[in-house]
Write a structure and sequence with these properties.
There is one protein chain. By secondary structure, the chain is mainly beta. The protein has a single domain, classed as Porin. The chain is built from four helices and 18 strands. It has a 16-stranded antiparallel beta barrel.
Length: 359
Amino acid sequence: MVIRPFRYLLTSLMLLAAHQDFAQIKDSSSGLKISGYADVYYARYSDSVGRGNYEKFPVISPKNDEVGLNIIQITAQYTSENARAIVTMHYGDIPSAAWSPVYNMIQEANAGFRLAKKFWVDAGFFKTHIGTEALLPKDNIASSLSIITLYEPWYQAGLKISYLPNDKSVFCLHILNGYNTFVTNNSQKSVGLSFVYTPNDKFNFGYYNIYGKTAPDSVTLPQSRFLNNFVFNYQATPKLKALLGIDYIGQKNATLVNNRSYAYVYSAIATLRYQLPANFGLYGRYEWFADDGIFLANTDATYKLSGITLGAEYKPTEKSYLRFEARELALPENEKIFRTNGENTNVRYEAMLNLGVWF
């Protein structure tokens, strides 16, 4: 049922692109651009959840022993000196497993205008401003996502005010319908800030946060959540890139454990990528995640989890990749949330092959 409107949208946008002035489309400063992206995968998991089902932590390559479509998307983006707009429609296992059930086919749809020389105002549906890792495999070093990324907001709706004081800094204020939602789920708005500082072409620092009420108004105790995300990018050499992310999340009235008035989540991600000759690259990631209050994981386990990912990438062209990676996720011995060969276990092994192309 959902394929037909997606097919209609894809056809419409391709016809629109065919009738545009190609000189205008190629102009990076103004005009309409049409772009697209697809990622296909094959994955194996030691966790036994049944054929055709989504694995635990389902987002990227979520089905076991199956060739699947992570995502196919198409974007129409308009840019001029004083106005801009973007619409992205998507389909596949990523939106099916992790996206909003309302407006599920919309990845983003927003428009904005220049309020003053250094200020922009945008409104509509957005991809989240939170996260060390981005939504799509093509925008990350690894294909899979760390556990903290799965529990952070992925999409949001509201108003964004951007301030660009110079070519090294960007400040944004986000006034949102709620935490990880397109539609309002309570009577209060959420608010977020983002700041990115790029002093040179080797180093980049970002701080992102969001504060708001997460529960519906019907919940007696207001469960306010404050998420803080720190991101450091460092291009140590032309061949070596390092990425570090630190997250701290606090929630008031997180009542899942001993009726605590406050509970916390701590997380860290460290990723390295080394470029080899002939368009090959190697990468590795370490992740650590602790949810003692169990307000994100929402299970009986405290989710003191660690993971190691190793991968290799080949880029046939600038806008394509073939990646193979493997990961081990491990919890304490008494937290056996996975199941392998009919037995509960605290460890899961993963392997995935991803092929992506975009234009």
